[in-house]
Design a protein that fits this description.
With about 210 residues, this protein is of the alpha/beta class. The chain is about 35% helix and about 20% strand. It has a seven-stranded mixed sheet with strand order 3-2-1-4-5-6-7, sandwiched between helices. α4 links the parallel β4 and β5. It starts with 7 loop residues before the first strand and ends with a helix.
Length: about 210
């Protein structure tokens, strides 16, 4: 008799194109089921003082509507209680986090059975925190890294689970800022595969 295991339920905290890549990878994986998605509707003030709608938000809306996944827009700290309220009644097995702008509190971290994975666009611990790609380029690094680590209350502080590296290939006629934007686009397709690999590792001992 063949026993088919129920997919692991995943709550996704995703933003930007990197997050979309991770979400789409999860939707294609038979061993995971996305049960809720949290994203940001508004741009950060550093990009837009008026905080207009993010370019990617409509894509999240379309994907979640197509797959009947509850979507929650969280843009301020005062809205974060909505996250706990949404997850408490039926806690997910896992959390998956990509390009999320806010700290995820201990009350939420304790809900999933297997914990969670955060993807960071930099080598850890060397480039933890903000602007990791720019800092790596300022240091003259010839490659950059996406780090998958366990989700904890400390920013970029959990145990490293997986890494994937990508060459910088500096373009001498471009500024570092232009190289950073180019590299962000180049590494976008890497987010889905490393997310799946990391999530599978943390449930492998079940």
């Amino acid at each position: 008799m063949v026993i088919t295991r129920k997919p692991y339920s995943v709550a996704g905290f995703f933003a930007r194109e990197h997050g979309l890549n991770g979400l789409q990878a999860l939707l294609m994986a038979k061993d995971f089921e996305v049960t809720s998605v949290f994203t940001h509707r508004k741009k950060p003030r550093s990009e837009d003082p008026e905080r207009g709608e993010r370019d990617d938000f409509s894509k999240y809306e379309s994907i979640c509507k197509l797959h009947s996944i509850p979507l929650f827009a969280i843009d301020t700290k005062s809205e974060t209680p909505k996250i706990f309220d949404a997850l408490e009644k039926d806690p997910p097995d896992l959390l998956a986090v990509i390009s999320w702008r806010m700290l995820i509190g201990k009350d939420i971290l304790e809900l999933p059975r297997f914990g969670g994975i955060n993807l960071h666009r930099g080598e850890l611990p060397r480039y933890k925190g903000g602007l990791p790609i720019l800092r790596a380029l300022e240091d003259g690094q010839d490659r950059i890294c996406i780090s998958a680590h366990l989700l904890t209350e400390e920013i970029d502080g959990g145990e490293l689970i997986e890494e994937v590296w990508h060459p910088v290939n500096y373009i001498q006629t471009q500024s570092l800022a232009a190289d950073v934007e180019r590299l962000k686009k180049e590494i976008t397709p890497l987010f889905g595969p490393i997310l799946l690999k990391a999530l599978r590792r943390i449930v492998s001992d079940e």
